[in-house]
Amino acid sequence: MYLRRERLAGVRRKGRLAVQNALLRIAGMDAASSGERTYDKHESYTGDLLARVSDAGPADALAALAAAQAAFLIWSTTHQQFDRGR
Predict the structure, then answer these.
(1) Where are the beta strands (DSSP E) in the chain?
(2) Which region, left, alpha or beta, applies to residue 76 given φ > 0 means left and ψ of -120 to 50 means alpha?
(3) In the chain, is it the N or the C terminus that has fewer CB atoms within a 10 Å radius of its CB?
(4) What is the Cα gyration radius of the chain?
(5) What's the whole-model pTM score?
(6) Domain count of the chain?
(7) Is residue 40 assigned to a domain?
(8) 2/13 Cα distance (integer angstroms)
(9) How many angstroms separate the CA atoms of 29 and 73, rounded?
(10) 62 lies in which domain range?
(11) Is residue 30 domain-resident?
């Protein structure tokens, strides 16, 4: 799973960073966790709220695994002549 930060309109407000929402990225798409649970990530020095992060559960892990397996099947059939790293 890959977490992607979704930037809000006003990134800085009164010298502080705006709160961001971190979504899961599964199969190339952004999504909230299946249980729609989140947890707060705080800045360690000031304690300010930095982000609300999607709390992935077992269903999200299985979805990410299925997406990775499907992507691997497609990737593994590409010809070695082409640069797979691109």
Answers:
(1) 2-6, 12-13, 16-17, 20-26, 29-31, 38-42, 49-54
(2) alpha
(3) C
(4) 17
(5) 0.61
(6) 1
(7) yes
(8) 27
(9) 19
(10) 2-76
(11) yes
